[in-house]
Amino acid sequence: MSRGSGGYDRHITIFSPEGRLYQVEYAFKAVKAAGITSIAVRGKDSVCFVTQKKVTDKLIDPTSVTHMFKITKQIGVLATGQLADARSQVQKARSEAAEFRFKYGYEMPVDFLAKVLADQAQVYTQHAYMRPLAVIPILIGIDEERGPQLYKVDPAGYYVGYKATSAGAKDQEAENYLEKKFKGNPQYSFDEAVQMAITALQSVLSEDFKPSQIEVGVVRDDAQKAFRVLTDSEVEEHLTAISERD
After folding, report:
1. CB atoms < 10 A from the CB of 181, how many?
2. Pair 148, 142: CB distance under 8 Å
3. Residue 229 and residue 237: Cα distance in Å, rounded?
4. What percent of the chain stands above pLDDT 90?
5. What is the DSSP letter of 26?
6. 109 neighbors 90 (Cβ within 8 angstroms)
7. DSSP-assigned beta bridge partners for residue 149
8. DSSP state letters, 182-204
9. How far from each other are the two terminal CA atoms of the chain, in whole angstroms?
10. Which residues fall within 8 angstroms of residue 163, CB to CB, at 6 or more apart?
């Protein structure tokens, strides 16, 4: 029980007199406590996200550590927060997307998948025998009618589309940086969008990254519209371009 909560954080279903649900607020804090910062940027013909890749033990195989997951061939998710909770949500997303494809004969749109995950998260705030998931998923994909799509879902069940967004530790600093870069509604190319996301992360965290220290996931508006995670050599090319530009 936190100081000043008056015992109202003992149950998730009880509002405090100020109208707050403390357990839901603690879920947001748990996402930040994971110590990972993630940034996503939508361009004119692509959408990407980037996050830190922290290997906590020298004995861990770095290739098995990831915060990025493929939901369908065309939709990717970046899960910021507790990875155990993230895997549960990813499994739900894959199941719902496969069922949608089987039922309707076409791929689930990104915004509808965000709604499904938000609905699940919101239900978790209503029942005393559940707890909110300490994870903020960012979804990217290409919509056949509306082009590049970027959505973020929070532990309270709120979701909305973005031009650019961030999650995790130092998310407010990252959003302040992105707001300045998106004044005038610029239309970034693929390379510009990826480099913008990486530059924003480097600026917020005040450090230069090696390719092994970050993950970059992208979807381009081409024939395949496929989600993929960039290789270390591809990330190296973008890091080199950023350093040469600066």
Report:
1. 16
2. yes
3. 14
4. 83
5. H
6. no
7. 141
8. TTT-----HHHHHHHHHHHHHHH
9. 48
10. 41, 42, 150, 182, 185
154 close to 168: Cβ distance less than 8 angstroms: no
Angle at 219 (CA atoms; ends 216, 223), nearest 5 degrees:
145
Tokens 């990813």 label which residue? 90
Burial class (CB in 10 A: 0-12, 13-18, 19+), 19: exposed
217 three-state secondary structure? strand
Q: What is the pLDDT of residues 125-176, one digit of tens each?
A: 888 888 899 999 999 999 999 999 999 999 999 999 999 999 999 999 999 9
d(CA 239, CA 246): 11
Q: Which two tokens stand for residue 97?
A: 């997307």
CA dihedral 100, 104, 105, 110 (to 10 degrees): -50
Please identify which residue in the block is written with the tokens 């149950």: 11
Q: Tell me what pLDDT residue 56 has.
A: 86
Torsion sign over Cα 242, 73, 182, 166: negative
pTM of the model: 0.93
The residue to which tokens 């973005």 are assigned? 162
Give the mean pLDDT of 35-44. Answer: 96
What confidence score (pLDDT) does residue 146 get? 94
